[in-house]
Amino acid sequence: MKTIGYAAESPTAPLAPFSFERRDLRANDVAMEILYCGVCHSDLHTARNDWGWTVYPAVPGHEIVGRVTEIGSGVTKYKVGDHVAVGCMVDSCQHCDQCHAGEEQYCREGMTGTYNAPDRISGENTLGGYAKHLVVREEFVLRVPSNLHLARVAPLLCAGVTTYSPLRTWNVGPGSRVGVVGMGGLGHMAIKLAAGMGAHVTVISRSPGKEHDARELGADGFLVSSDTAAMAAAANGFDLIIDTVPVKHDINPYLPLLDIDGTLCLVGQVGGMPEFTTVPMILGRRRIAGSVIGGIRETQEVLDFCGRMNILPECEIIRMEEINHAFERMEKSDVRYRFVIDMASLKQPAA
Question: What's the whole-model pTM score?
Answer without folding.
Answer: 0.94
